[in-house]
Amino acid sequence: MQGDPEVIEFLNEQLTAELTAINQYFLHAKMQENFGWTRLAKYTRHESFDEMKHAEVLTDRILFLDGLPNYQRLFHVRVGQTVKEMFEADRQIEVEAIDRLRRGIHVMREKGDITSANIFESILADEEHHIDYLDTQLELVEKLGEALYIAQLIEQPES
Fold it and tell me: Both ends of the chain: CA-CA distance in Å?
């Protein structure tokens, strides 16, 4: 099925964002694991996998619309050095995604591509949930201080 070029470009732009998020979250998860923040690392790794699922859905839709998924382009990966910097970097990726998704939904509905709009709405709901989580974690870091917050993320390795 031949898709609208503007819709395909929005799908590809979001695909780029998802591929970037996969890399950023996965790197943060590995860093968190290395720092001993195993509980946080598990959550962040799961978020990376969620972004991979989004990338898969977007890829399928682009191909269905006879477009070519762009796997060669990435946005800037932001790497935090502290837990607060990681949350802030991940939050920024979500803020940008939410804006892009809302704009895309509007264009897709105008063009009559309800299925693509529904896909974007589903991803938007996931991103809003993730930004809520990040906002909560940033508030906790602010209230508790970074050292106390991090102390709650450490798990002893299984013997």
Answer: 55
